[in-house]
Amino acid sequence: MSEARTSLPLWPFIIVDVLFAGLAAILLKFGHHPLTGGEAALMVVCGMIGSASFLLPFLRRNADEQTLSQFKLLADAVSQIQKLDQLAAHISGATNQWLELQTQTGKAAESVKQVAAGMASEAKSFTEFMQRAGESEKAHLRLEVEKLRRSEGERLQVITHILDHVFALSQAARKSGQPGLIEQISHFQNACREAGRRVGLIQIVPPTNEPFDPKQHQLSEGKTAGESATIEDTIIAGYTYQGQLLRRPVVALKE
Known about the structure:
Layout: H1 2-7, H2 11-30, H3 37-176, H4 179-198, E1 201-204, E2 218-219, E3 231-236, E4 238-241, E5 244-247, E6 250-253
Parallel strand pairs: 2-6
Antiparallel strand pairs: 1-4, 3-6, 4-5
Helix pairs in contact: 2-3, 3-4
């Protein structure tokens, strides 16, 4: 607006206004009274020209200001349009980046699927291998357990056989009536029994006069026990191994 005022000076219009106003005043002062038609028309023309010359710069300034305002509005609109274009460019760039990211994400997901499939295949192969190895190991362990059981059974048979012979030797020494022999054989038998206890094998020799119990004792073939029968002697000792009954002792009853 300030540029429009400086581009259109007021002084020429003021001079023109003053001239025509002065001319109208001269006509009014020095003309006929009343004024003739020509004088009146000339006076009106001078007033109109003076008024027009006075109003013209303001009208011109107003028009310039309106034009400048329109130019500014147009410039603002162009600026906003440019900003919209920039925003559209940013949106387009962001969309392209999003599409690129989506593409990369799809590729990454496909890679993850392939890795997962490979891991699943490896896990399946490893599981099958471990199952085969486990079955082989189980079979090997079962074989070893069976070997140990057979070896343990054979060892128990050997130990019980030895203890049976020692028990028979002790019974023979006791029947001989020789105190020295009985004492020596008893010490030897106790030592053998202690060796058996270390591996969990305990020899069972029920005491004399103990009531007969068919769940814990047994008789020789062809023998039967009556009510309130008591044990007179032990013929063959019994055994337990680690708390489990291996053999009930064979006893003789009092008649």
